[in-house]
Q: What sequence folds into this?
């Protein structure tokens, strides 16, 4: 969990000021502080407010950038991709089916290894139209060569724009970053946010330098000429290696961030744990499900139950070793999926499959149960989290419950 | 309206075929077919734009046949872009370079940004992106190379294939002689009418009249802002004729008036081949059609229909070749 033991000083140093910001507004301030050069906008709820905010920041002269109002999400991501190719720092974003509309452009941005950053304000996929959160949109890029990470507060959102560019633009990585946040619950909820000073940001985030991959008349290269079976496999291998190298760079970037901004994040950075020291069963979730999850933990702890919560921040690169080490301590893990994977093994969610796959090689592994909940933005209540804990606790002792998948809060 | 006055635009005009620059920036390495006119379009634009140019190329035959790994023909920086991203790739490239120059991150200089796309990429799938590009204030040129088919996937009909043509999507059969029943989409005209702030929109044929295409590229780059050129590219494989006749077919197409040649600079149109009957006139379109195997199945009635559509375009349209609107202004009381 991102915590600071002491309240930092505001003004004059690392933190310039404090402001009440939504998740979207915080990302916009992150884009300003990262001195982004090209922004490609197109409206779709709930991510849009980030673009509203950036346009006002530019109108007020607080950021010098090209602000392009694109004709579609496909164009948005293509614009960001090609701006990145000429060594400009670029930013775009979307939600739900808008993200899907741009999918072709999203894929080539990753296969071209261009280190741009896209915000995904998670939204249910049409049909029917719904504005609420579901994670299937962002999850769609999970195997394409993206850095994929979820944030849970506006403060983390701002900071992860900077951390995101830092990792994506590292020459060992050069991968695009999908920064995801729950629609409404984070995109539109306000928190007090500390805004870093531009000086401090400059100390943390170096300028983009694509080096010999930069497209410019001084460096006349051809990018992505046609290849077939004679070369594609080697190129896939290079992307695979970059994704593997990203693991080390993630930890390095958080370490540097902590050095400049005080100890904001704790190792292993990829996820944070709440009251897990002596826990026997835990729930593991992504995104704002952590809020009711942690409250449920506190209430059950008051009743003497040894429970905890694991909030998974990074999905790509997936923290295989770290999660194995962490989750093998528990008797049972309840995986919360705010997504669906119809027809998949045991008809579970995407996160379930990744966690099970991660833990499979362990000799002693916890029982794993799965909860599909909060789809389409449906609230996940504290009571439901307590119910999920009860099921997970039963799975710790009843073998037949291993692999059990249940839908929470659905009308039957 | 049509004007005989030369437009007063300062640019480095190529005054004849012997004055065409010798230096090539699109060289060996491509695998385009013999007689490929689209390759001539590629070679031409980069020759006259020069080395301070960045190009993006949409998927199409000028990607797949043109730019292969380890044998790139491009001396200038070039990048692939997706089929429908002709417009958006130009925006991203031009916006990126402009921002970096304005913010002092790279040296300030004129770098031409040229994006090319085929007829299905530009005229069908990428139309929205091109429209978006033409609404910006960025310096960029989009060249739509039109060989009237998806030539890379074995000649499928597109929105810009000539009426009646045989393609693999529109084969003549025992029940239907004509499967290509759509009239060719008028992309340059549509873009000109829809984007009044664009300062240069032109159509061209790389081989006829000689140097006309090259000078149009020069003019578009000199005018600045977002600009657009639509080229008419005979394709031996797709149009089914011997490769040695490519330039002849192009010339016949222009002289028959089926593909109007013009340029619109600051809202003033100038015809670079005036095919109206009051001017140079037109050769019968039959002379153009019957040189190509793709029209071999047409009967007189079909040719007459195509001829009548061309006649209407030149004699009845309010702005020939651009706006298919005719008649007097009438206002209902």
A:
């Amino acid at each position: 969990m991102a915590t600071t033991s002491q309240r930092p000083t505001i003004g004059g140093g690392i933190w310039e000021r404090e402001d009440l910001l939504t998740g979207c507004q915080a990302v916009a301030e992150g884009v300003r502080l990262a001195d982004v050069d090209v922004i490609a906008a197109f409206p779709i709820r709930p991510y849009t407010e980030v673009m509203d905010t950036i346009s006002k920041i530019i109108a007020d002269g607080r950021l010098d950038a090209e602000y392009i109002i694109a004709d579609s999400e496909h164009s948005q991501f293509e614009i960001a991709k090609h701006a990145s190719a000429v060594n400009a720092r670029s930013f775009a974003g979307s939600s739900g089916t808008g993200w899907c509309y741009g999918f072709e452009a999203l894929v080539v941005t990753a296969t071209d290894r261009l280190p741009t950053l896209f915000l995904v304000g998670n939204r249910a996929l049409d049909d029917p139209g719904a504005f609420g959160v579901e994670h299937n949109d962002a999850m769609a890029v999970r195997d394409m060569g993206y850095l994929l990470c979820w944030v849970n507060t506006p403060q983390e959102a701002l900071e992860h724009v900077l951390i995101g560019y830092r990792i994506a633009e590292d020459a060992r990585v050069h991968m695009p970053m999908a920064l995801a946040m729950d629609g409404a619950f984070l995109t539109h909820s306000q928190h007090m946010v500390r805004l870093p000073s531009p000086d401090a940001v400059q100390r943390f985030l170096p300028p983009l330098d694509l080096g010999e991959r930069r497209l410019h008349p001084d460096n006349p290269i051809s990018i992505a000429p046609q290849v077939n079976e004679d070369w594609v496999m080697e190129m896939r291998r290079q992307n695979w290696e970059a994704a593997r190298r990203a693991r080390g760079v993630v930890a390095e970037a958080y370490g540097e961030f902590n050095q400049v901004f005080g100890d904001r994040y704790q190792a292993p950075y990829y996820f944070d744990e709440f009251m897990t020291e002596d826990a026997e069963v835990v729930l593991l979730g992504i995104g704002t499900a952590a809020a009711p999850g942690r409250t449920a933990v506190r209430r059950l702890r008051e009743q003497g139950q040894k429970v905890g919560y694991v909030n998974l921040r990074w999905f790509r690169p997936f923290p295989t070793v770290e999660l194995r080490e962490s989750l093998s301590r528990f008797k049972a893990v309840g995986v919360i999926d705010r997504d669906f994977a119809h027809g998949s093994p045991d008809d579970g969610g995407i996160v379930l499959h990744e966690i099970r796959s991660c833990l499979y090689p362990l000799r002693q592994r916890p029982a794993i149960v799965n909860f599909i909940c909060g789809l389409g933005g449906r609230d996940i209540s504290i009571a439901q989290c307590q119910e999920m804990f009860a099921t997970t606790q039963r799975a710790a002792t009843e073998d037949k419950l291993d692999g059990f998948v249940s839908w929470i809060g659905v009308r039957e | 309206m049509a004007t005989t006055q030369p437009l007063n635009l300062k640019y480095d005009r190529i005054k004849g075929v012997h004055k065409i620059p010798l230096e090539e920036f699109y060289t060996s390495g491509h695998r385009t077919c013999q007689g490929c006119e689209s390759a001539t379009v590629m070679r031409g634009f980069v020759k006259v734009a020069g080395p301070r140019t960045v190009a993006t190329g949409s998927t199409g035959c000028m990607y797949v046949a043109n730019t292969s790994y380890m044998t790139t023909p491009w001396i200038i920086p070039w990048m692939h872009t997706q089929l429908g991203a002709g417009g958006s790739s130009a925006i991203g490239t031009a916006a990126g370079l402009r921002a970096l120059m304005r913010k002092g991150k790279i040296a300030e200089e004129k770098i031409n940004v040229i994006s090319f796309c085929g007829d299905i990429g530009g005229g069908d799938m990428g139309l929205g992106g091109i429209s978006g590009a033409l609404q910006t204030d960025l310096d960029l040129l989009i060249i739509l190379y039109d060989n009237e088919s998806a030539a890379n996937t074995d000649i499928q009909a597109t929105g810009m294939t000539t009426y009646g043509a045989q393609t693999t999507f529109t084969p003549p059969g025992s029940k239907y002689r004509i499967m290509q029943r759509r009239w060719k989409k008028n992309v340059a005209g549509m873009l000109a009418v829809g984007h009044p702030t664009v300062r240069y929109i032109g159509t061209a044929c790389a081989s006829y009249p000689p140097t006309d295409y090259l000078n149009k590229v020069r003019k578009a780059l000199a005018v600045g802002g977002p600009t657009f050129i639509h080229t008419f590219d005979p394709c031996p494989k797709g149009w089914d004729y011997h490769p040695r006749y490519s330039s002849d077919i192009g010339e016949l197409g222009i002289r028959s008036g089926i593909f109007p040649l013009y340029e619109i600079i600051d809202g003033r149109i100038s015809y670079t081949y005036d095919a109206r009957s009051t001017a140079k006139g037109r050769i019968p379109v039959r002379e153009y059609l019957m040189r190509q195997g793709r029209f071999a199945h047409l009967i007189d009635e079909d040719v007459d229909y195509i001829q009548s559509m061309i006649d209407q375009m030149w004699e009845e349209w309010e702005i020939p070749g651009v706006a298919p609107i005719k008649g007097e202004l009438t206002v209902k009381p």
About this structure: Residues 232-261 of chain A form the longest helix (30 residues).
